[in-house]
Design a protein that fits this description.
The complex is a heterodimer of chains A (232) and B (196). By secondary structure, chain A is mostly helical. In chain A, 83% of the residues lie in helices and 0% in strands. Chain A has one domain. The mean pLDDT of chain A is 90. Chain B has 196 residues and is α/β, with parallel strands linked by helices. Chain B has a domain of 118 residues: P-loop containing nucleotide triphosphate hydrolases (Rossmann fold, 3-Layer(aba) Sandwich). Classes of the chains: A mainly alpha (232), B alpha/beta (196).
Chain lengths: 232, 196
């Protein structure tokens, strides 16, 4: 250990790492804007490809919105630990006298705030573009809010496993898409239930459970994967 | 004694690079890891720091704190030099911005404190990374190629800083391609002797 004893409390160590990563993200706004631009472009293309029939678009909107959210998450996940690995920050993070799961979670939290959280906030705009009924919009926001927590953590695990693999994008996709499928199904179903006047709450509750479970388990898996990647 | 290494072997993938390494580092000593490219200098240093463990066997005992500076600078290019040191991921530097500015001035980076590190030259980035040496109270320094990208003045500054550190009861282990940086006072560990 670089120090005999930790100099900071766990809370302060978490806050420091969160702040560092958030500052780095804010200093390169393209990393924050890229998933939003991707989301906007793809959502714009769907009405052109499917035709301007509002009913058909509204029926397909929950699935389209969630698939595009998943792809946007996949796009940014690969980069989560890449720069830390390249510039040596990951080595220093692993040497810090704090649980790597905690400091990695701080990075993931900053990353989620800059990508998934913003995506959930602006998602009603994309929902309206696809003619999603008003009843579905709050559930879309809530499902993306919870779902992107899971997607970001799963993406972090994939990134941690492939961070030292050259051109590991395909491997990353193969690893994490199957894990993302339950999130996609729950999210789409919640929004669809809201649109048809069903019971979206139970699906949102399932997603909440999934998000909480991911928050507990996945940081530990991410830390283990990072240590293996640093070792090899 | 700050570090004791007993019967350490280093592997990379399924290939054994080094075996049977034994040495002890005491306060006031400078050790240089020597050897040709690819012999395993960086792998051993990473193993001594605890960054890489899977490919390492044998016993490594630290007595006290250490500071590890890898070959990469561990700096975020979008952050300023001050922010990089203030929020360093190793969390071993708890210094105020003014203390950090003083340290940066001592490595000849006065005026560059608040510029993004990405806009600095390779030598200046190395100086930012080396400024951690002024802010840490670790007894043992593990430095991987610390002289890389430094100009003559930078190398002289680092040499004098190492002398100062070991004079004050610290110890330094470093890798470098240039032999005998510190003359007869340094211990050389030729890893070629341990290559498999």
């Amino acid at each position: 250990m670089p120090s005999d004893r930790p100099l900071l409390s766990l809370r302060v160590a978490f806050a420091r790492q969160f702040y560092r990563h958030a500052r780095a993200l804010l200093a390169s706004p393209s990393d924050v804007a890229n998933p939003l631009i991707f989301f906007f472009m793809v959502i714009t293309l769907f009405p052109l490809g499917l035709g301007p029939n509002p009913d058909r678009l509204a029926t397909m909107a929950p699935g389209i919105l969630w698939v595009v959210a998943l792809l946007a998450s996949l796009m940014v996940s690969a980069k989560l630990f890449a720069s830390d690995f390249e510039d040596g920050s990951l080595e220093q993070l692993a040497l810090a006298p704090y649980p790597l799961a905690l400091t990695a979670l701080a990075e993931v939290a900053a990353h989620w705030l800059a990508t998934g959280f913003i995506l959930a906030l602006v998602s009603p705009l994309f929902g309206v573009m696809l003619g999603l009924p008003w009843d579905g919009l709050p559930v879309l926001v809530a499902s993306l809010f919870l779902g992107t927590v899971c997607l970001t953590l799963i993406g972090a695990l994939g990134s941690a496993l492939t961070v030292n693999v050259r051109r590991g994008g395909l491997l990353l996709s193969l690893l994490i898409i199957p894990l993302n499928v339950p999130v996609l199904i729950f999210g789409t179903t919640a929004v669809r239930e809201a649109v048809i006047g069903g019971n979206p709450e139970s699906w949102l509750a399932l997603m909440g459970g999934l998000a909480l479970g991911s928050l507990v388990v996945l940081p530990i898996a991410v830390a283990a994967a990072l240590r293996v990647s640093l070792d090899s | 004694m700050l570090l004791e290494v007993s019967q350490v072997a280093v592997e990379r993938g399924d290939r054994r690079l080094l075996s049977g390494i034994d040495f002890r580092v005491s306060a006031g000593e400078v050790w240089q890891l020597l050897g040709p490219n690819g012999v395993g200098k960086t792998s051993l240093l990473r193993g001594l720091a605890g960054v890489a463990r899977l490919g390492l066997s044998g016993e490594i005992r630290h007595a006290g704190s250490f500071l590890y500076l890898g070959h990469s600078s561990s700096l975020k290019h979008s952050l300023s030099a001050v922010d990089n040191l203030r929020w360093h991921p190793a969390c071993d530097v708890i210094a105020s911005p003014s203390q950090i500015c003083d340290a940066l001035a001592r490595v000849s980076l006065a005026g560059y404190e608040h510029r993004p590190v990405g806009s600095l030259s390779a030598g200046q980035k190395r100086r930012v990374a080396l400024a951690r040496l002024l802010l840490s109270d670790a007894a043992l320094w593990l430095l991987d190629e610390p002289f890389t990208a430094l100009d003559t003045a930078g190398c002289e500054w680092l040499e004098s800083r190492v002398h100062e550190h070991v004079g004050g009861g610290g110890a330094v282990i470093f890798t470098s391609h240039q032999a005998s940086r510190f003359g007869a006072s340094q211990h050389n560990l030729d890893l070629g002797r341990y290559a498999v």
